[in-house]
Amino acid sequence: MSKVYVFLADGFEEVEGLTAVDMLRRAKVDLTTVSIMGRKEVTGRSNITVLADCLYEEVTSFEDGNMLVLPGGMPGTTNLMQHPGVRKVVTSFAKEGKLVGAICAAPMVLEDLGLLQGKKATCYPACEENLKSAILTGAPVTVDGNLITSRGVGTAIPFALELISVLMGGEMAKKIASDIVYE
């Protein structure tokens, strides 16, 4: 069984974060949303407040996880990048070969941690100049090894489907795409 953690921070891009959560849960993935804000209520960039499943401080270990997901948005990405715990867990997952997904501005977290050196990646166009060590593809979604990156709100569904495909196989991704009438 796959276990996924999605980090939520004030200023996250709601469509990116919640599309991944919704679609992974449709695929019956064991998924936990984790607030890094010290409170379960997290307010996104469009002023939509969501209730996270738990606080970062309540997770005793992320060892059972197969994947981390980092939504973009500002200042959500900055909040993720500045959180010592997120930095530690993302670095650990990446170095252990576990899956890390980042969309929109969030690939900048991977860059800041030195994880994109020589890796293919994509991100929000205005953030491309910040991914100096990556090989930018400009594709809607890019997978390089255990890193899955995507461009933004408009690519949230393909990103979520790729997360499902990498975790559970292409057939499950096709099933979810069909279920939501994604053509």
Care to describe what's here?
It contains six helices and eleven strands. The mean pLDDT is 97. Helix 1 (14-26) packs parallel to helix 5 (156-168) and helix 5 packs antiparallel against helix 6 (170-179). Helix 1 links the parallel strand 1 and strand 2 (30-35). The chain is 33% helix and 22% strand. With 183 residues, the protein is of the alpha/beta class.
- How widely separated are the two ends? 28 Å
| Shape summary | globular
So how many helices?
A: 6
Flag low-confidence runs: none
Within the largest sheet, what's the order of strands? Answer: 5-2-1-6-7-11-10
Taking all Cα atoms into account, the compactness measure Rg is: 15 Å
Helix content: 25-40%
Strand content: 15-25%
Largest sheet: 7 strands, mixed
Series of secondary-structure elements, N-terminal to C-terminal: EHEEEEEHHEHEEEEHH
- Number of strand elements: 11
Structural class of the secondary structure composition? Answer: alpha/beta
Describe what is shown at a glance.
The chain contains six helices and eleven strands.
Task: Provide the descriptors you would attach to this structure in a database record.
globular; alpha/beta; 183 residues; 11 strands; 7-stranded mixed sheet
Produce the secondary structure layout.
Blueprint: E1 3-8, H1 14-26, E2 30-35, E3 41-43, E4 49-51, E5 54-55, E6 67-70, H2 76-82, H3 84-95, E7 99-103, H4 107-112, E8 120-121, E9 135-136, E10 141-144, E11 147-150, H5 156-168, H6 170-179
Parallel strand pairs: 1-2, 1-6, 2-5, 6-7, 7-11, 8-9
Antiparallel strand pairs: 3-4, 10-11
